[in-house]
Each structure stands twice: as C-alpha cells, then as structure tokens.
TrEMBL record, chains A, B, C, D:
Protein name in the entry: Argininosuccinate synthase
UniProt subcellular location: Cytoplasm
Coiled-coil positions: none
Domain Arginosuccinate synthase-like N-terminal positions: 7-170
Catalytic activity: L-citrulline + L-aspartate + ATP = 2-(N(omega)-L-arginino)succinate + AMP + diphosphate + H(+)
Gene: argG
Source species taxonomy: Bacteria, Pseudomonadati, Pseudomonadota, Alphaproteobacteria, Sphingomonadales
Organism (species): Sphingomonas oligophenolica
C-alpha cells in the first residue's frame, strides 16, 4: 500500500475530514496533493476551501474549484430523471448521481496535472467509496486509488481531532463532539444518516431537516405551478425558460417552501448492510412526478411499460456506482430513444408536503378524446373489435381451463 | 349471437344500466336471468337490488347477494399489496383487483344454478370487459359470455332511458341527463372517469371526489398510527387486531379524514387507448406505503430487488385482467415466498393529503445497528473488505477501460 | 366491410392462393389491384408472377417486383441477430422477420400509386396476419386492410379451386389435392406446418425438408470456416468480404451441405394456440452461434447479461409482429449500443447437423490471458481481493442466516 | 488470519492439492482437520481418499465419505433443469450446481463434529471460492472460512510440490510438471480450463475431452430414445423407470457414445475476468433439450415466456454462487409452480454430436389439433375474432402513427 505516489488529486470539501486527509496524504505518501472542490449546488461557499488548501501547502495552480452545477443537472440528473429511477421504490438517488461527475472531473484533473493517484473521503462502510472508485477505474483503469478511511488508524473521532490539532488544522467547536448525524448535500438533495437516526423505529428529529420546512409550517394555501418539458427534459417553470440548474434551483425553492420531498428510508447498501437515512429532495420530487405526468400523455404504452420494467435495474446500477458501465449506457440509450416526443406542459399543485399533477397537455399527445369518449365516437373505435380481442387473449386460458378443470 | 341461451348469471348492481341489461337479456335471449350482487364494500345498500330484481321477474332463489368483503381483502387485495403493485408507477389497481373475484363468484353461481351463460355491464371500450371475460373463460372455458354493450343498439343515453321507460324500469332524476362522470367503487377505491374529466389538462373538479376530504379541509394536526404486519399482511391498527376487511375499512376512515390517496392519472388501457381517470384509494395508499416500510426492515436486498423488478409485470397482468393465469400465479408464488418474515410494526404520520413512514420495528429485522454504525463496530464489519469488493467489481470496467481508452 | 375501395396493394406471390385473392379482390371490391412481389431470397423465379398479374388484368405499371434481399439481411436479419433473439429458446424467427419488410414496402407502394387499401394472403389462425397488419397500421394508421381469408366464403380447398377454375386461374396438378403441409420461405429460413406435421408426436417426414440435407447424408468430414464480424455484423467468410445477403447465402450453402439448422418445434402462437412447425435455418443457425462466439470475447459481462435478459422480450415482440413499435426500437437502441466493438473473427466447425465454435479472436478482445492465467500473473490480479469481495457479497446472507437459523 | 482454529472441515478430494492443504492446515493452524469427500458421480474411487486422510493423521471418525449422487441430481440438478437455465446462453452450469451441495454437507459435518471452521481448495481467481463461501456463510453465518490458496505462499507449482515432498505427500509422476489443463468433474459434467486452453483462438485439443467420444468417431447410425417426465422431472428412459441419478448416468452413457454435449466457451466470471473453458455435459445436454420439448406441449404461453425471461437471471445467480439466497428461492418457487403438469414423453434422436427432439406427447397437452388445423375446425376457432384482436393491438400503434407521421 505504500508504494510510492507522486501526486494525488483529492476530492476536497474543505471540511475537517478532507482537511485531515489532505495532511495525512502529504505525510503518509510524501506526495503532492492536488485539491478538487466541486460546486454541485450544495449551498456552501467554496472560497474558504481555497484558503485552507493554500494553508496546507497546496500550490495555487493545484487548487481546482469548479462550478459543475449546470453539467450536473443537464448530464446526470436529467438523464436519470428520464428513467423515472427510484431506488427501492422511493429514493431519488440524490447522492448516487453526484459521485460519477466528481470522479470524472477528478480523473480529468489527474490527467491535466499528471497525477498518478486520486483520493476521496468516503468511509469503508458506505456506497460512496464504491461509486467513486468504480468511476475512477472505469475512466482511468490504471490509476492508483487511495481511500484513507480504509487505510489509516484514525478510526475514532477523538484520534481524528487529535491528528487535526497536531497538524494545525482548525477544528470548529461543533465538530469536537460526535456529530448527531452526518450529511451529504448537492443541488438535488441532502441526505442524513447515523447516530440519532440509527434506530429505525425512532422518528427523525425535526432539526435534522435543512432543505424543507416542516409541512405543518408550510403555507396554508396551495400553490399551482407549471413545468414545460422538451424531449424529456424540463425547460421552463410557469412559462419562464430556464437552464437546467436554474430550473432545479427554482423547484428546490418551491419544494422547500411547501415542505416537499422528505423521505425516511431504510435501504439496502451495495456493501451488504441495511442503513437508515433521511433524504430531502424538494425540487427533484416535484420534477419526478411532473416527468411522469408528461409521459402519461406522450409515451406509448409499449414504451412506458418497458421503461417501468427497466427502471428498477437502472436505479440499482446508479445506486451501486455503475454509471460508467456499458449496461447503464445501454439502458440510457433505450430510455433516451423514448423521449423524443416527451414535450408539453404539466400543471402541479404543491401543498403542505404533497405534490399532485392536476393537468397535462402536449402538442404530441397520444390521448384521443375522440377515441376514449363515452359519447358517440363516430366510428373512431368499433366496440365489436373488443370481442375478438378478448376471445384470442382468452384462447390459451380456455385451453388451460379445459385441461385443468375437466 | 342469438343461439339459444337458457339461463344467464348477470353481475347486477341494481342500478339503471344493469337493470336495463336484465330486461334486455330476458327479452333478447328469452332466457332466465339470475342476478348476482356482490358487497365489495362499495358503500351502497344492496337490499334494493333484491327488490328490483324481484320486480323484474327474477325468481327469489335466483337472486344472489353476497358479502364478499373479507374474501376480497384477504384473497385479492392483500396478495396484490404483498407485490407492491403499482400500474404505471402510480395506480393501486383498485378496479382491476375486484373483477376477478366477481367473475369467480359468477361462475360458481352459474355452476350452482346450471346456467349456460354469464353477463356483465362493462362497456366495449374499457378494461373491465376484458377482466370479467378473461376470468370467466379461465374458470369455465366453455361458458357463453354476453356483453350487452357490445351487442345492443342502445348506444346513446337517450335510447337507454327510452328502453328503461318502455319497460317500467325506474329512472331516477339524476340519471336522466348525461352523468358528468362515471364511477366504480369498492372497499379499496373509487374511480371516476369520463365527461368532465375527459380533457387531461382540466383540473378534476372537487365534486368528483367522494371518498376523501380535500386535503385543505383535513385536520390541521397530523395523526400518528401504527400498523402491525404478520407474514406480509396487515393484522392490527394501533395495536388492535382486526380482520382484513375491518383493517382496510379503518384505514379508509383515516385516509378519508386526512385527504389521502387522491390520484389524477392518464393511463394506458389494455384495449389500446389512453384514458384519464381520477382515483381515490385512501386506506390502500396508507397500506401500500406501510407495507414497503416493514419490508425495508425485514426483506433481504436480493428478495427486495427481485420483487421491484417483477412488480411492474405483476401490475400489468392484473390491470389487463390476467389474475387467473399461470404467469400471475407464478409471480405470486415468488412474492409470497418472500413474505414469511415480513412481520413487525410500522408507524405512519397522516397529514393533509400525505402519509409518511416515521418508524418501523420487527422481531425479524435484518437491520444491524452494530454493523452499520459510524462508531466503532468492534469487528462486525472489516472496512478492508471493501477494497477487495471494489477491486473485483471494478475489474471488468478496468479491462474495458484499457481497451477503449488506450 | 364492403365500403368502397379504389385501389389495393396486394402482397402477391403468384401462387394459387394469392392469384385467387387477386381475382376475388377485383370482383368483391370492384377495385384496381396493384401487385407487389418481393424477392426475399425465397428461391423462386418471380417473373412468372408478372405474367400472371398481367393476365389477371393488372396494369403493367401496377406490377411491382422488387429485389429486397440486401435490405432484408442488412436492416432486418442482422439487427435481429445482434440481439441473439430466439423465440421460446429455440426458434430463429425466420418468418417473423420478413413480414415487417413486406408490410413496409407495401405501404410505400400504396403511397406511390395512391392506393387506399392493402391486402395479404395470410390466414385467420396464424401469426402472419398480425405481423402484416400491425406493420400496415403502424406505418399508415388510416390504411384500409383487407384480409380475404377472414372475409370470404372460400373456406375449403375445394371451393378455392372451384373459384380458381371459374376464373381461369391455372391450377397446377399438385395443388388440386390437399397439400401435405404448407411452407413459407425466405433467405433466412423455410418453415413448414400443417397436415402431416399436425401430430406433435409424429416425426417430421424427411420429404418435408427442402433446405438442408439429412445430417446422415452430410459429408463425413467436418468443414472449418471463419466468419469476420464488424460492429456486430458479419462481413466476411473465410476472409472473403461479402455483402450481407451474399454472406447469408454463402452460409446457407454451407448449412445445407452439412445438414445444419433443422428444428422441430411446438410453439405458442400470438393468437393463443399452440402449433407444431418444422424450420430449416441453415445459414442463420451458423451465424447465430458465430455471433455469440465473437460477443464472448468482445462484450463486457454487464452488457452481455443485460442482452441475455432482454433477448426473450425482443424475440417475443418480433414473433408477435411488433417490429414497428417504440418498445422494439428502444430495445434495438440498447442492443446496437453494445455492438460497437463486436469485431473479430470466429472459427466454426460444421459437421453432420451440428455447428461448433472452435476459436475466436478480436482486436477488441476483453479476454486477458495475463489476468486469467493459472501461472504467476505478476500482480495483474491480487487474489486477496477475492476475500473482501466474497465477504461483502456474503454480508447480507450472513445477516439473514443469523436471523433465520438462530 | 491466524486467530486460533480448533477443528476445520476440509472439502477433500484426496488429490495432490487438497492433500497439501490438509497438511498445511494442520501445520499452520495447529488444528484438527476433518475431511469430507463427496461422491457426486465424478467417476473416481473414493476409498483411496480415506487411506490418504488416515495417513495424514486424520482420525477415522473424522473422515467423511458420502455418496451424494441421488441428492445431487434430485435436489440440485433437476430443480435447475426445470428452469432451463443456461449461463450466457450456452453453459449448463455443471460446476456451479455442485458447489452448494458440497458446502451444505460440509456445514452439516461441521455442526456434527463441532468444528469452528471450513476450508476448500478453490483458487483465488475463480468462481468456486465464491460459490463455496457464499454457501458456508448463508448456512452458518459465523463459521470461520479458510481459503488456503488466498493465504499461503505456495504460489507456484514448484513450491507446492516441494511442500508435498517435505511432508511425505505422494506426488504422482504426471503431477510433477505443470498440468496442461485443470479439470472439475461430477455426474453432470466435466470442465477443463487453463494452459493449453488459454488462447481462445486455439482449438481445444482432442485429448482434453474425457467424457464424450469425438462426434466423428460416434456411431454412423442415429439412436432414438424416449424420456418420460413427471411434474417437470425425468423419471424414465425408453419406458424404464429410474431414479434421478440412474437416469442421468444413463443419459451420460448415451451422450458419451454419440459425442453429445461438448462446449468451447469464453465466459465471464463473477470475479470480473473472462476465462475460456471446455465443458462436456453429455446427459445434461440431452436432458435440457428434452425438458424444453415436454414443456412445449404442456406449458401455457404465459408461463413459458415468463420462465424464459427469468432464466438468465436464475442462471446468473447459480453461476455466481447464490443458490442459498432468497432471490434464487423465489425464482425456484415461481418455476416449480409452473411444472405441475409438465408430464409426458419426449422422443429424441442422437447422432454424431447432435440431439434433436423428434416428437412429444402428454396426457396434459395444451396442443389442440382441433383448434390449429388448416382443415375445417368446426367452429373451434372463429377467424373473425382475429380482426378485432389485431385492431385493438394496433390501436396504440395507429395513434402513434397519426401523431408521428402526420
């Protein structure tokens, strides 16, 4: 594990943990550390990370702080939303979808600065280590990967803080004790897990939520909005055209206000254990439902049902970290093929934690009032056709029945 | 179509349409009509149906009025709920699941009274004709099926009412005009479609809802309940043991009060067209989420993900009317096999249209705080294992990367 | 059914049945008939069809005889082969894959000559009627479709021949009696069914086979060949580059000689019944196995397994006639995405009815002798990684075991 | 890794490798070794293993030699064959299916003799280590597993033989050099891989095959046999009732004689690499095809197609070692549910490497000559039903076409 490393690109948040990692890498591997800090809309200022990196001796030209918000929504969140992906029926995959982008950018930087290794701050029990590292290996098969949490001996909070103090890493007061829970955030969601959430019977305390108001405190009046879609992606809210990231931010504001998108989940991690988490996905929850709404009108049944059958697999692949895999790309090719006419407008009502589609329209609607009407349809549909349709669908069941009920 | 029929068992609600059908059958086929009226918890009194049937000349011993509520929930709704079935991602299949039971009972009665035919009041454009008739044919392959809506010439409301009046069938005032929408109801749900709902852009008018209060009118205080499950089925609410039907009724009351389970949907019918419907599934919506909640704790990942992949197919089979088919039974066998340890308690919060799981516990929990904890786990999980796990999962991606990025 | 038709495009083989249909259409609908005869490599001369059409009064400019062999193999057979599609595990879909192309061309001609209807000679019990008509409707939703076998009263052989004789349609001697079986042929296969094949316990008589020698009569020496693939499609045999149709013809010759590709099958028709058929797919059988051979080397496991899971659905769609459907196109998009590097050479041995892959090589091979070797691999694979891999894959099973075997 | 072990149950073949392991375990762990040798029909005498174990100091009461042949075929091979499982479309899973039974028996013995560990001789690059260990952990979550090949330093053949010689382990002459390939055998198959097989372009040398004659040397006359099935399992050959193991042995003899069941495959291992193997599955190949043959007649289409869609997943689970997993059991429950009427007789022709179904019959046949006949079916099937069937299946495609081709 200690074969020589020259230069390592670290996914660096500027927080205590990755600051300790930065120092530990320098010390353990006697190598140059390059920091990469991504703005994925997590809502934190990133310039302090630059300062901290500088203070830790990182060369200015080796400090990368990138605003990836548009790329994140356009090339990761939206493609995933086209699939209507839900992990285990409920989870909108907010953490999973951010990891491949970080990994991809880290590898790009590694190539740019001629680094021979990459490193991240994910622990050895979670899914994120897998997601980062599968991304690294897929994009740079021979890269060296350093996962400090699996290597070092700073296995307790106390030792981590000791190490920080020994190395002049500032430790803010609230980091000194054990955190009551740990969080991850990006533009799509905030997740929290650990400590106060570890007993899945205990209700999530209200102070854990940070992205949404409590539904009980949300406005007493519902709010109605529209989202316009083009080829499967959102392009406007209330008729106002927006870039992908702006659109998601706008939905986040709406979701926050109305207490939308909270989820308390016990899920199955790829590494084999169950964990309990709390998710807040305000804008994503609205968007997901809206996308289903526009598909209802514009997707053919065959396409829609095939998508529904593929979606759990797609979600599992993302959750497990296989974004950069041939099978995810194959599924994406199938899904994207279906979205060409997924264009139109969905109206939604937001109210105290819930979101409901209340209308949808499209220039490419497959809904035919003329065919479906209870009124006289003037020959658009011949009800007698149904007799033959049923008879032939029943034929095999009748042959079975004759055999088995003789 | 007019080959001789001796005795036909009609699925008879006592309403105007099936009363017209009763008379039309007698007249057209010169046959005896046997009426079958099922109590599936639709919330209507059924004794008037007896009177009407008698008035129409049906022999008392040929009037069947059966309370099927417990059988409906125990043998149809609960097995479906074990599958977490949602049609097109959202619809809880409330109408679909009632049809096979009605068909089954009709065939039993046909055998009992020596009838050679069965009949129903479903139209030629919908899914219900298919569901009824596939059920009939599967259970009695050589039964004669009469679908008046596909045969007769009473194709407009006016002609239907004329026919009723000619034959002394009482027509209540509100039935004289075109109904603004049509509904189907049973203990699981009420569905509405047609007329005022036909434009999928128009919001569903509030007067269409009958089973739930408007969320805005629901109590301002959330209500917390628990549901106990045993082997995948609900057995108690708030610790009070209940029969399946009582349990569902109790959840319906709770859902009604809190405005839970409304759904505005454009769906794909089996007969090939899109339709727009409104569904109210108050208790079922709560139950569905609670079942997922207890599975989160007690189902292994392999079982859970397999279930998630099979669920869309299962839902499609039910929606299309293939309850009595080998493939539905195969899927059910797989699903039921997974439910042996799905036992425990789920806590839910009901509030203004939304329902959220806030806790779950089980004597058969697979969640291990000891393994998952961020704290020192005392060797329950060796983080170094993750390195090998990732390495071998990455191996094929690295080989790919070496080939494709060389 | 007798609303006026002006001009109908008939899929016309020149044989007795479609000649009767031609006349019957003229007579019944008082319409102009346009004939379309496709060369799909069925191995019959097509010019006689022109003469017969002329004799039946079809205008010369309304007689279409098209050589579709290259299009057939390139745009239909090859894409299907990329999917490794087998219906019910065994059948290479030789009839199914020809129908959409015929339908497509018929619709093109209908547009060209301003026809308002199309017609085909498939019977009312088979799959082909469905395949033709789903193709017609998908490509020309408002086209009028005439299916004589479902409409007319020529329901016995005797009446058909009477009609032919009344209308000066030549009836060759061997057509006077009942045929002992019926066949369909194109470049991919010949199928036979009916009469002497109707008892699935009876062995298929040797005289039914027309495309392959009996394996017992095949050469006593095996023959070794190579097929080169590029991006998933065959491009050369024994190093000689060939067009798609030439390549398939060449494989057909080889298959014929070695008795390869015979299949006796009882299959499930889309219309609900079982039928027994005999298929000869000489070249296709070799090609199918060769394609699997090259994929073994060049497809990643994730892609390969996803393909294997999608293939039965893809095959079912083709068999049922849904070539022109969004869901088939979605699957094709996924499959085609996987084929980019499916390039290389497969060596096969042909011998007395069997075909075996004996070697494969590729510039894009993912097989790594260095990794897989039993010898010292010099660090290409660290066996200790397997321990962690197994441990984490086992974790959920251990948690289960502790619960269930406690 | 050297925490103390008291008693370990070793899967012991008596060959050189497991003899070395036996000694190495005694020495390294200072523990008692219990040997378990299974007769799975691999065709070797097992009593020598007893002698060798005794010589190595294993107590007589700690030497277990069990004849598991009937259990192997009845409870492992047959259930798998009910699924028609083929890994990557071709491989009959002969090695995969034996591992869970060995693991199960090892755990039973461990409980019986109060052992705290189990051990096996599979290497760190293959699938078998995973299959053994997932089995161990599923059945005994807290068992200690020792995998010598991943632990020791005997990483070359030379060192292994040195160790053997130092410890008086007899080394036969042919084991002194590198073996040209390695094999695994049981009643279902023999597999070979490594060395001379490592270049996937090189043809498998004839001397590698041990279970089948070269097809070219097989009899010049075909042989016809019948297999009787009851509820999905084979029960008789040529009308002679047989136990599962006897039936498979009998088919093996037939397959050997006719050169049936050879397969040259490049496959994807669970541990992430491709490997090239040669398989001989003489009886299994015949049985697999025969089972499909009887299903053709007795399985409904819905059941058959669902099975075909589930089979790749089932095969993957077995290959990867997840026999003792909830998801495999769920799939098995579904599959077994379908087999109740899979009863009847299949006739097959064996000839020079190929096997063909030539007839099948069943008291539970769903094939209806009356329905399928080209002749007058006397109303068993109304061809006009097909019109409605097609119309409604086409409806969504027509609505699509009107939208997209307008």
């Amino acid at each position: 594990m200690t074969e020589s490393v020259n230069r390592v690109v670290l996914a660096y948040s500027g927080g205590l943990d990755t600051s300790v990692i930065l120092k530990w890498l320098q010390q353990t591997y006697q190598c140059e550390v390059v920091t990469f800090t991504a703005d994925l809309g997590q809502g934190e200022e990133l310039e302090p990370a630059r300062k901290k990196a500088e203070m830790a001796g990182v060369k200015p030209e080796h400090i990368f702080i990138d605003d990836l918000r548009e790329e994140f929504v356009r090339d990761y969140v939206f493609p995933m939303m086209r699939a209507n992906a839900l992990y285990e029926g409920l989870y909108l995959l907010g953490t999973s979808i951010a990891r491949p982008l970080i990994a991809k950018r880290q590898i790009e930087i590694a190539r740019q600065v001629n680094a021979d290794a990459v490193s991240h701050g994910a622990t050895g029990k979670g899914n994120d280590q897998v997601r980062f590292e599968l991304g690294y290996y897929a994009l740079a098969p021979d890269i060296r990967v350093i996962a400090p949490w699996r290597e070092w001996d700073l296995t307790s909070r106390t030792r981590l803080i000791e190490f920080a103090e020994q190395h002049q890493i500032p430790v803010s007061k609230d980091k000194r004790g054990e955190a009551p829970f740990s969080t991850d955030a990006n533009m799509l969601h905030t997740s929290s897990e650990g400590k106060v959430l570890e007993d899945p019977w205990d209700e999530v305390p209200d102070y854990v939520y940070s992205r949404t108001v409590n539904p009980e405190d949300a406005p007493n009046e519902p709010e109605t909005i529209t989202i316009d879609f083009e080829r499967g992606d959102g392009v406007a809210i209330n008729g106002v055209g927006m870039s992908p990231a702006t659109l998601l931010e706008t939905l986040n504001d709406l979701g926050r206000k109305h207490g939308i998108g909270r989820l308390d989940l016990v899920e199955n991690r790829f590494v084999g254990m169950k964990s309990r988490g709390m998710y807040e996905t305000p804008g994503g929850t609205i968007y997901h439902l809206a996308h289903r709404g526009i598909e209802q009108l514009t997707l053919d049944r065959g396409a829609a049902h095939l998508k529904d059958e593929l979606a759990p697999r797609y979600a599992e692949l993302l959750y497990n970290g296989f974004w950069f895999s041939p099978e995810r790309e194959m599924l994406q090719a199938a899904i994207d093929h279906s979205q060409e006419k997924v264009t139109g407008t969905v109206r939604l009502k937001l109210y105290k934690g819930s979101v409901a589609v209340t209308g949808r329209k499209s220039p490419f609607s497959l809904y035919s009032e003329k065919v479906v009407t209870f009124e006289d349809d003037q020959g658009a549909y011949d009800q007698r056709d149904a007799a033959g349709f049923i008879k032939l669908n029943a034929l095999r069941l009748r042959l079975l029945g004759r055999r088995d009920q003789g």
